[in-house]
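Per your request, structure below.
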């Protein structure tokens, strides 16, 4: 081989287009949407599925702000409530278009999330947690006491759905499609410039700033994305159940969102879906124990404690680590002594 042959560059390996590489995801999502649209569920099962689907989108927000950026947020139920009330009041009282109200709810949540992010820029740990708790409590009090606007404890009824999805079955399919779209975007957020900046801030905020990352913008963006997903989920929730009230968006709901995120695995949207599904289904599985006072809640609490205790990275984190170890073990070269 001549020297000139060595100078010829090797042909570049062309990677498959993104849509081809992720085709299994899109096919799986399409199958779930078709299943949700075609299978006949009774009203009780439909309500559980709607709750699980909308809650999962809200928990996606925590996988961004907490799992990706490392900022704790105990006010996700407040953003969930913003979206729900804008859709509820807009469609029931003002007779506005559902889509306009849904976008409006996301916009209000975006502004509120950015405000919360800016006001907590220099806070961390328990100080940040206390501020977000206070924000959540203020929002809940406004929902209860601003009767002229929110209808107070009576809540908002007769919330309308979009014209294309009037039936509960079709609306569930729409929510599943939204879950798949949002999950895909959150899944690939770490591969974007913003996602890489969030990870850098989570790992070492000081080093991230030294390396030219705008820490202020990154933190605010994380809270804003989290809030938008909460508002979107709340708007979908309001349309699905046609009724909202302040007790559905209290601090207890924020704790529930956080538990769902930690239970499934805060670093992954797959973990968010797993944690949400389990925390909604475990009470249903234990319904037969409700006849014994206290036993139902004790087993429910113990189940959550055991999962978090023995799976600190969540269920999906545990499964991912186990799969990674299996792959590493299968690819490891054989020990020399074993061949003799």
């Amino acid at each position: 081989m001549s020297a000139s042959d060595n100078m010829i560059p090797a042909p570049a390996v062309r990677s498959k287009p993104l849509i081809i590489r992720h085709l299994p995801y899109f096919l799986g999502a399409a199958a779930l949407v078709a299943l949700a649209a075609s299978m006949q569920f009774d009203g009780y099962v439909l309500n559980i599925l709607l709750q699980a689907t909308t809650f999962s989108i809200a928990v996606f927000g925590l996988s961004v702000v907490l799992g990706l950026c490392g900022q704790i947020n105990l006010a996700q139920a407040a953003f969930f409530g913003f979206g729900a009330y804008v859709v509820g009041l807009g469609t029931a009282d003002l007779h506005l278009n559902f889509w306009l109200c849904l976008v409006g709810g996301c916009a209000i949540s975006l502004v509120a999330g950015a405000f919360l992010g800016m006001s907590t820029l220099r806070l961390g740990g328990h100080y940040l947690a206390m501020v977000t708790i206070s924000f959540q409590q203020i929002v809940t009090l406004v929902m209860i006491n601003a009767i002229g606007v929110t209808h107070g404890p009576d809540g908002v009824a007769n919330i309308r759905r979009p014209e294309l999805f009037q039936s509960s079955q079709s609306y569930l399919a729409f929510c599943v499609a939204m879950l798949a779209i949002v999950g895909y975007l959150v899944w690939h957020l770490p591969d974007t410039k913003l996602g890489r900046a969030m990870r850098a801030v989570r790992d070492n905020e000081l080093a991230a700033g030294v390396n030219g990352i705008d820490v202020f913008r990154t933190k605010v963006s994380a809270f804003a994305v989290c809030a938008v997903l909460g508002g979107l989920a709340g708007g979908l929730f309001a349309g699905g159940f046609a009724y909202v009230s302040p007790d559905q968006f209290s601090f207890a709901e924020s704790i529930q969102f956080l538990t769902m995120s930690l239970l499934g695995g805060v670093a992954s949207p797959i973990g968010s879906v797993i944690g949400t599904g389990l925390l909604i289904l475990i009470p249903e599985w234990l319904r037969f124990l409700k006849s014994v006072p206290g036993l139902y809640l004790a087993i429910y609490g113990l189940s959550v404690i055991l999962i978090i205790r023995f799976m600190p990275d969540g269920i999906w984190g545990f499964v991912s680590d186990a799969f990674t170890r299996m792959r590493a073990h299968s690819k490891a070269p054989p020990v020399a002594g074993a061949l003799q």
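Residues 215-241 form the longest helix (27 residues).

Regards,
D.
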